[in-house]
Design a protein that fits this description.
It is a single chain. The protein is α/β, with parallel strands linked by helices and 224 residues long. It has helices spanning 24-33, 47-57, 87-94, 117-127, 156-163, 170-184, 200-206; strands at 8-12, 37-41, 62-66, 73-75, 81-84, 98-102, 104-107, 112-114, 132-136, 153-154, 189-193, 213-216. It has one domain: Carbamate kinase (3-Layer(aba) Sandwich). It is built from 7 helices and 12 strands. The strands form 2 sheets. The protein has an 8-stranded mixed β-sheet, sandwiched between helices. Strands 5-4-7-8 form a 4-stranded mixed β-sheet, covered by helices on one side. The two termini are 32 Å apart.
Length: 224
């Protein structure tokens, strides 16, 4: 974990999939103990405060937010994210808090607007120069359309090509685009994985074996 110390890890979760058996909240506590700065992006409005409550039951300090709070996320009327102001998040990090963000933003007309959760994770990760953005998806990683096997590594260009190929379901295609844009926005790597796997986030950070698909700026070497 030394290479992650002091760095930000953004995790987009499907909050409805976090049942009583999930290890996700203990994983977040472990990250905080290791001096990482996890940020959770929820799948729908209203989930952040509920998940923060579960984190707080374990002794961590979660804070449920909306992207509209303190002008955190500014968006156009078409729900396109225009800017992220990370000052509030840095303040929370400095005080030991774990931010959880609902996918909402503030328009230039000062009206709240619902945003796409993958896009929020992508934009927040880029604004914080995150070490990783993890996209939890029940379908796991991206499958090779020819072999149906999960692809371990892709470049952003390859991920975008696969997303536009029509072989992925629309939700997973959206996640693939967000992962590619995360890396192009300055995030070191974005990963699409099944968050229901025990200790999924920790395994993905600590090992070289991917539970899903990792998107990085490096060129993928074709398998023989």
């Amino acid at each position: 974990m030394d290479t992650f110390t002091g760095r930000t890890i953004v995790i987009r979760v499907e909050s409805g999939a976090l049942d009583e058996r999930t290890t996700f909240f203990s994983d977040l506590a472990f990250m905080l103990e290791q001096s990482l700065h996890p940020v959770v992006v929820t799948g729908q409005p209203g989930a952040a405060k509920r998940l923060a409550g579960r984190i707080n039951q374990l002794g961590s300090a979660g804070v449920g937010l909306s992207g509209a709070d303190a002008g955190l996320i500014l968006a156009g009327s078409n729900a396109e994210i225009r800017a992220v102001n990370p000052a509030l998040l840095h303040t929370l990090f400095a005080s030991g808090y774990l931010p959880l963000i609902d996918p909402e933003g503030l328009t230039l007309a000062a009206e709240g607007i619902r945003l796409q959760a993958d896009d929020v994770a992508r934009a927040v990760g880029a604004a914080l120069e995150a070490k990783r953005v993890l996209f939890f998806h029940t379908g796991g990683g991206l499958a090779d359309p020819l072999t149906s096997e999960v692809i371990a590594d892709l470049t952003p260009a390859e991920a975008l090509t696969l997303a536009d190929s029509g072989t992925l379901d629309p939700e997973l295609a959206s996640t693939a685009r967000a992962a590619a844009r995360s890396v192009r926005g300055g995030v070191e790597a974005a990963e699409i994985l099944d968050g229901g796997v025990a200790h999924a986030a920790i395994v993905e950070l600590l090992t070289q074996t991917h539970l899903g698909t990792r998107v990085t700026g490096s060129i993928r070497i074709a398998r023989a």
